[in-house]
Amino acid sequence: MGCGPSETVAATHPTVSPPIINGQSKQASDESLKNDLNQRRTSTTSHTSKRIRINSAASIHSTTKRVTSASSKTTTTDLKSSTVGKQSRTPSLTLYDDANYDLVIIWVDPHIIDSEKTYVNSLTKFRRITDAVFTFNEFDQCIHFLDHIYEKTAFLIVSDSIVEQFLPLVIGKPHLDFIYILNQTKRKIELVNAWKKKVKGLFDDIEEIFKAITADSNHIDSWIPMSILPKNDIKKNENEANELNSSFMYMCLLTEILLKMQYDYKVRNTLSEFCRGRYLDNEEELNLINEFEQNHKSQSAVYWYTRDCFLYKTMNFALRTQDMEIIMKMGFFIRDLHEQLATMYKKQVDQQKVLVFRGQGILLNEFDKIRKNIGGLISFNVFLSTSTNIEISLNFAKGAENDPKLVPVLFRMHIDPTKSSVPFADVTKCSSFSYEKETLFSMHTIFRIVDVRRNEGQYWNIILSLTSDTDPELMKLTDHLRQEIGGGSHLQQLGNLMLKMGKFDRAKYMFTTERNITNEGTWFEQIRFNHQLGYIFRENGEFVKALSYYEKALDIQKANLPKNHSSLAPIYNNIASVCYSIGDFSRALSFYKTALDIELKSLPSDHRNLSNTYNNLGSVHCSIGDYSIALQFFTKTLGIRQKTLPDNHPDMASIYNNIGSVYNSLGEYTKALAHYQKAIDIQEKTLLSTHIDLATSYSNIGITYNAMGDHEKALESHKKALEIRTKSLLSHHPDIALSYNNIGSVEIDMGHYTTALWYLEKALEVRDNCDAGYHVGFANVYDNIGRVYQSMDDKLKAQSNFQTALEIRKHSLDENHPDIANSYNNLGAIYNLMEEKQKAIEYCEKALVIQKQSLSENHPSLANTYNNIGLIYHSMKDNTKALTFCQQALALQLKSLPEGHPSIATTYNNIGLIHNSMKDYPTALSMYEKVLSIQQNAMPVKEQSLGITYYNIGSTY
Length: 957
Description:
The protein is of the alpha/beta class and about 950 residues long.
């Protein structure tokens, strides 16, 4: 049981000289911490028999339950918090599932030679279509890759030498749209009927495949990012019905920064050089790039944008995929285009209302959202091209008719020039295609969805009206986030925004670009840079690197700021977060207290930074089992945040999650769920769908449902969490192991032991590459593996895993921590099965002593221990004592668990066993019938458990 803290990125709050800890300077303590971290890392990679992991910024939840033997189940409750300057928890993207790319091109050929010129040139061409191009020599690597891409369109190039063996293995992959067979030997290949829908043909050379993929990907290039109000967010209140989703908010902030940036004369050359690299073998495009470099002026932006050339394609790709490197290179052109439209808009604003059209194909899920949300708002997050000529627009719509993934639509947009919140203009006179009668809108134009209706032909009409309406609550949050990311250079602001969006790699790109431009900069800038990089590496699970950057920041602060400066607190908060992440709770607590002492002397009592440190102290106390103290700190945090933040700020979700984790650890599951739901309600409206904080909430909800006996809902929530983490984190990040462990725990409770063991072994595999392997969270995995082996009657392996879990916990936790009790319980149960009765009782009594000291009097874990002790006495033929303990368990469960909870059935069953041994058959039968009633109403019904109960009833008769 327990909770976990978070960490900070506080680049704008430098800190200074260390106080004394345990007779040595903080500096010495920091060096000790770094050495300790390196030692822990070494131990996790060199000793496979002692696999240990961290549940990063998370809590641990353990309970014990059994029918005829006792063991614990251990899952992990995530606890997220924030400290000074925290920018929402933010992930780095894995290479193979970068959420930027709509299209992934995969090339499988066992004979690929990386250095071959033809191969290198082919990759260059394919990367003009998408940067997500991957090659594989082996089947299993490619299959694994396909299994781990989400919400993408995948095109597959396959060598003729492996077609017959490979295609049956991948043809059913849902994200695989088209297959192109490279048949350079021109041999005859028989295509199975099941393949024909996806196989686009046999091609003699790679150039033919490039042309085919270029044509097949045109519909993807036409996709435009839209923000649409989901139906479950529409409220009866008219203002709330105007709400837009979070992507609109973040893209607006991004655009604001880009439009304010100052660009020097070199930027056009930089963009030109970049584009030349993408079009090396295309003479026509290279000529256009040269022309642009020599002739472009700010007032010619519309002309260049409307030309069918590299510029339009590259910019729309960058905006659609949020590729920050390309967006930065094109920032000057985005500004030029926006400003030219603004100038033209001022001249045209007095014109009459007009009807414009846009034809295109849109994804099925996007179309479904629009159709279900008539009356809501929609925003287009790119420059939007429309036409007053309906026939031209219809041609674009009809181009999507043959694509099963797309719905051909014709947007009919009613435009009142006085109602727009962004500039737009009729650009016919300066367009390179004047016959198209184009009206061009700048980014983030907002429309009201008026109607959606089917045309007699093959397309749908979507009726929109231009509006300046917005969601007041969203705008309030946007203003607050604007203040949080503001200050510093525009590159700094972009980096901070990327952190808010949960885009770590892009944030790192911004900060390092700024660093290269300033060439180290002032001491203050150096502090900020080291803080930022430390935070990014911390979130990536690279704790050694994180600590290195934090220490650099501290050294600079000590050299330049006075002692006891208020900016000292953030760096200690950050170092404390690393301590927590490696399981060193005592040192984490020490650093957090140091930060608090500084802030109490220098900040007002309701300062937001102070609330963050309270929050982190609460997290550590929760992790070491001090739940009442943790709740006090969290309550202080909540009070300050309610005064200083908007109700829908992500940090409000964070504190609700933390409070929920305390209630979960105390066994008050209804209260826990209520707080988790508050958190997720905020997060779903204000965070991107792949933000790691959403995974935290789903994980917490899953753990609570499992504790309440609703395994199906638990599994659903845990799999949502795993999907987000797999998308958004590095493959060796500890939080991925956390999800594997939680799913494994649920699978054990459902009796799926083989599946459970697979997930648990996956958790240990993650640990092998994890920076913070020596953490108490890995005890959960070993406990669960022990449960599996116990269920399989492999007592020695079960005992070994339970013992490993105990050793890990003793290393990191106080001797009276409830998790130590769980380990004692598990060992007591397995020693009972091994017929070592005295040892079994000793361990369970140790567990009971700890639980009575550290848990609430009605906590379900106490019932588990009473059950375990009762069953040990039952096996020793002391039925009087056995019945006393099991009845204590039942009384407690009836107070603390919902009616029909599986743990109550477990206790009824145990009491029935005891009465049966005492030859009190009527009472035994009564108990078994209660068990049967609960099992028959359980979802899903467990046939094995029912069989045992029917057997018990039959044997009683």
